[in-house]
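ERR on first pass: missing label on line 2. Operator R.T. fixed the label and resubmitted. Corrected input:
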Amino acid sequence: MIIYYSLLAFIIGCILGSFSNVCIYRLPLNKQFITGRSYCPKCKKKIIWYDNLPLISYINLNGKCRNCKKKISFNYFLVELISGFCALYIFLNYNNFYEIIFLQLLVVIFLIIYFIDLKHFIIPDILNLSFIALAFFKNFIPDFESSFTYDLNNSIIGGVIGYLIIWSIIFSYKKLKNIEAMGLGDAKLMAGVGLLFGWYSVFVVLFISAILGLIFSLPDLIKNTKNLKTKIPFGPFIIISTIIYYFYGSFIIKLILL
Ligand SMILES: [Zn+2]
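pass 2 clean. output:
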């Protein structure tokens, strides 16, 4: 029986991934994102339902639009696959129904933010505000097995510190060097992280993000194709660091306190 339920969880995850793809494509363009049929971004032709099945259609169409034969971004496939595997992982590892829904919602929000910020260097407010609301709401649903904080004060202070720390980085860089170091979108994202895990998480997550950011920009810095002023999206690093913190946060804090 468990194999059928697992398959079902995977399929639901893929469908949510498909919905995430619609948001990733349409949110930055300010298009109506829930309503309206799917269409090819290149030739604008409406996509027939059997060409719109998560994972399967991409393989079936060999990654090309049926009408205009232009390439469909591999990211569509990737997002559906990641979402599917996350749903499967969550289903197999958690028992609390509310927690399963909560974590899958987080996966969807994180996926959308990750891919939008990567391409457009923005995080739409609706995503950050949904994340913040969800992270705050978690304080009132007990019995999660996850590494979130359940101390309401710690959560709220975490949210405020998360926002202020990025805000002060933005402010001081602007004053001192006239550089837009980060965006307020990053500040709101960090507010959500603080609300989820408490105030100390803000520093650890930011620290890991900075290291990841440096590692990823190092090859370009060495080749001199970019300099330190080149804009890189910071949201994806915050998201990867948050996931690392979710799994290894207590271990990392122990290491720091040694
Ligand atoms: Zn097309």
